[in-house]
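Lay summary. Proteins are chains of building blocks that fold into shapes, and those shapes determine what they do. In this project we predict the shape from the chain. Here is one chain we studied, written as its sequence of building blocks.
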Amino acid sequence: MKKKLALLLALVMVCVGVLSACGGGASGGGDKPLVVGYSPFSSKFSPFFSETAYDQDVWTMTTVSLLNNDRLGAIVEKGKTGETREYNGTDYTYYGPADLTITPNADGSVDYDFDLRDDMTFSDGEKLTADDVIFSLYVFSDPTYDGSTTLYSLPIKGMDEYRKGMDTLANLIIAAGPDNTDFALWTEEQQKTFWDNAKAASEAIAQEIVDYCKAAGYNAEDDPIEACAAN
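And here is the predicted shape, written in a compact code that computers can read:
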């Protein structure tokens, strides 16, 4: 049970650390801008798609986590109401966007209930709600998401069923084949474009192999690729 609690608490810290992913960051104190110089940026200032450490620093400074940590790294479960903890002989009170209640169930599962503050807004004035947390969870759970996450590997009820019900468009088109006539999930133009691109890519790769074999001296008159493979 302790291992499961620790695992899912780690999940909470990761998946809801992107509350402000599409809102520009939760509002903070002061009216002076924070100026930071970095190089290089890939300009993907998103917790979902950032690629460099520099871009990650930007969204880290402009987003909030659903749960915070104290000075010893322990999770603060009552951030909304505040928790006072001692560190090096001094009491510190920690606050955050939400309170967390953990309820172990008889079947071995665990429920995590969050009570979110209702006075938080994004930088554009839009109110931060539970929908923002849910959005982040759906992004990380999506089987087509190619960013960095391990959320789908955690023992979350319904996760396997949710992910099995989806696939990438490319995989669906491949499975249907080039002669498919059912265009309920994609258009005929999308299917034609996909297979045209696939054919062009295959021909380009084949030509690269032929050119390499010829350049390497495998110049069998009938089949330079076969001669190259044989060597």
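What the prediction tells us: The chain has a mean pLDDT of 80.
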